[in-house]
Specification:
alpha/beta; three-stranded antiparallel β-sheet; six-stranded parallel β-sheet; 2 domains; Rossmann fold; 11 strands; elongated; formyl-coa transferase, domain 3
């Protein structure tokens, strides 16, 4: 049973943080409608290679916008706000979301009180960089810098580095996803809607569980440490004869299993029996392990560690990740009905009933204003002549 197929999401979205959230909601089967300014649109439409040889459908945009519809609307115009209010009422919008700056909420007519007056049980979500009282702009790397993630990423003593994925963006999306689901439960139980304010900065800070507690409570200094672990050893990247593996020994029992193997018996020393001893000599121990592992292939070492149930992995390229048997059967797909192009999309966190029923296929990311005729014309009842006039005036 598709629990969410009758829910409508209207999202004034751009960039990554909100589009990734609505991408997740589309994977649940919700009807997701993007709203974009009719001139500027989502800047991410112009990022990456122009793979379709057409405007505003560049590769970067395609990654997290499948399964959605798209409308263009100028909310700075009074007529645009009138149409917006009609959308809220006539489409029976369940969830409205925006990542506009808070100073624009009232000006654009998208503030919670205005929408609540149209639909009393609406779930309203505002995603900001630093909360509803701040109009400071925020991009993911800025959040990584200010939120401590860059301080914790990189080689010890080296330059701070950004995390390889936009965690403040996508982490905020995931936190917002949970809050939206709680709001839907609240509405089901009480009939009441919700206002949700989700700040990227708060989301980013919430991942710093160990660093904040140890720094604030016990005066520890937590900083970047390269590939090693602050508290467990051996946990690091080790060279092999044909590449690298990542080995993670999480307890003393696993270490005992490692040194029971012939090739590692030289490391079966009393000083290393406990994790504290291994951490205390981490540099020398890692060098000794590396001197051994570089004589064996990644495949040989993976087979050995797997046989004794010690976590290990080859460090895979993205291409290898895609080909991984566990990944291959969970990838998502979308086909462009215009060009016939197929695109492959990242797997969902879990396979939803909607995705399973659709054979893991979503509709192709929408073109700019693709659904104007369908929704403004057929759903709201605007004539072709009226739509042409609105288009000429820059309202849609």
């Amino acid at each position: 049973m598709e629990l969410f197929k009758d829910l409508t999401v209207l999202s004034l979205e751009q960039a990554t943080v909100l589009p990734y959230l609505t991408f997740r909601l589309a994977q649940d089967g919700m009807q997701v409608i993007r709203l974009e300014h009719p001139v500027y649109g989502d800047p991410n439409r112009m990022i990456g290679e122009n793979v379709l040889s057409e405007e505003r459908m560049n590769a970067y945009f395609l990654c997290i916008n499948a399964g959605k519809k798209d409308l263009t609307l100028n909310l700075a115009e009074a007529e645009g706000q009138k149409i917006f209010r009609s959308l809220i009422r006539e489409l029976k919008v369940d969830i409205f979301a925006t990542n506009q700056l808070p100073k624009n909420y009232k000006k654009l007519g998208i503030d919670y009180d205005s929408l609540k007056s149209l639909r009393s049980d609406i779930i309203w979500l505002g995603v900001t960089g630093f909360g509803p009282d701040s109009n400071e702009g925020a991009y993911d790397p800025i959040l990584q810098a200010r939120g401590g993630l860059m301080e914790l990423t990189g080689e010890a003593g080296g330059d701070p580095q950004v995390v390889g994925i936009p965690l403040p963006d996508m982490g905020t999306s995931e936190h917002a996803y949970g809050l939206v689901m709680k709001a839907l439960y609240k509405r089901q139980a009480t009939g009441k809607g919700s206002r949700i304010d989700m700040a990227m900065f708060e989301s980013t800070l919430s991942w710093l569980t160990v660093p904040i507690t140890l720094t604030a409570s016990f005066d520890k200094t937590i900083s970047r440490r390269g590939n090693t672990h602050e508290f467990f050893c051996p946990v690091s990247v080790y060279q092999t004869s044909n590449g690298y593996v990542y080995l993670a020994v999480g307890n003393d029992r696993q270490w005992k299993a490692v040194v029971s193997q012939e090739i590692f018996k030289s490391l079966a020393r009393p000083a290393y029996e406990k994790n504290a001893g291994r951490i205390g000599d981490v540099k020398n121990l890692n060098a000794a392990i590396n001197a051994i592992t570089k004589n064996y292939s990644s495949e040989e070492l993976i087979e050995l560690f797997t046989s004794i149930t010690v976590p290990v992995s080859k460090i895979q390229t993205v291409r290898e990740v895609i080909a991984d048997p566990l990944v291959e059967k969970r990838l998502l797909y979308a086909r462009d009905p215009v060009s016939g192009m197929d695109i492959t999309l990242a797997p969902p966190p879990n396979m939803t009933p909607f995705l399973a029923a659709s054979n893991r296929r979503l509709s192709f990311p929408p073109r700019f204003g693709e659904n104007n005729q369908e929704i403004y014309g057929r759903r709201l009842g605007y004539s072709d002549e009226t739509l042409a006039d609105l288009n000429a005036k820059g309202v849609i």
